[in-house]
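Bug report (template v2)

What were you trying to do?
Predict the complex of my protein with zinc ion.

What happened?
Run completed; filing so the output is reviewed.

Input:
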Amino acid sequence: MKYFLALDLGGTKTSAALFTQEGVMAENYVYTVASKTFHGESAVYENSKKALEHILDQFKVDMSEVLGMGVGCPGPLDADRGIILNAPLMGWKNFPLKDRLTQDFQIPVRVDNDCNLGALAEQRQGCAMGLKNVIYVTVSTGVGAGILIDGQIYHGKTGGAGEFGHLSIEENGKLCPCGNRGCLELYCSGTAIKDILVQESRKGTKGLVFDLAAGNEGKLDAKLLAEAAEQGDAFSLALFERIGERLGYGLSNLFNLFDPDMVVIGGGVSKSHQFFEEALLRALKSRAIGYVQDGQIAYSSMCDKVVLYGACSLIREAVEKGEKSCHLLH
Ligand SMILES: [Zn+2]
């Protein structure tokens, strides 16, 4: 039996899984640990290595049975060389992730941006299976996108394509940490939801979501908002609708620019899509120049596993293409 390893290295969590040669996740098992962010360059790396070693132990797999490893990471990164250009959370600047993993595990390694791998997973095995031009949008702590053109990842010149969250939708809007103003993610990410809830709470706005938090600002987040919306809280439902509108306006720019076959939306906030999908479609259709069908927007069913599936597809295809280990080692 031969296997592939997959790693999803995030700002908060690091997940690892084992896949069969056919791309099936072994026992549907994902091992997740907190990322050792802000602990320095080697802490994050050693922590990831341990997660991978745990997976090998768990399944009693020997490295001789592993054909390769796929890794998803937040950008910006150089996918060809597997170098993480700048990840302040991890303490990484020009960090040679691919070389380090290749040396330590002695197998071929492929690295790409997590949103790009989300797109790859959805197009290879998910709800956009077999479609040509697919965009995966993640709505979680931030907002990002992965773009597949003719089934291939579009990286752009420097690997920086897909910064959908930094599309400016308000000329004189809020200042974003990226230096721009009015960026989309300031209005509809998980972070934005937290900020809005805290502001409203301090203003004394009434709503079940604030009752549920019982004065604890730390509890105010997208999950609690969904809980309150579930119980019919008018404030929470209206906020989700506003988020859907903003996302819809943002997506209309993607439709006008790419005319994609499908946009798949994933990420933590997307789990509550029942509360915002109507507003999203309405806003999207009102701003898109071409005709948008309801089925061109889908919500990821792979959820938290999407990057792992994409990482597996990435390395599986590289290995299948005959890029043998000696090639990938250098
Ligand atoms: Zn920005």
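What did the reviewer find?
The chain has a mean pLDDT of 94. Residues 137 and 145 are 4 Å apart (CA to CA).
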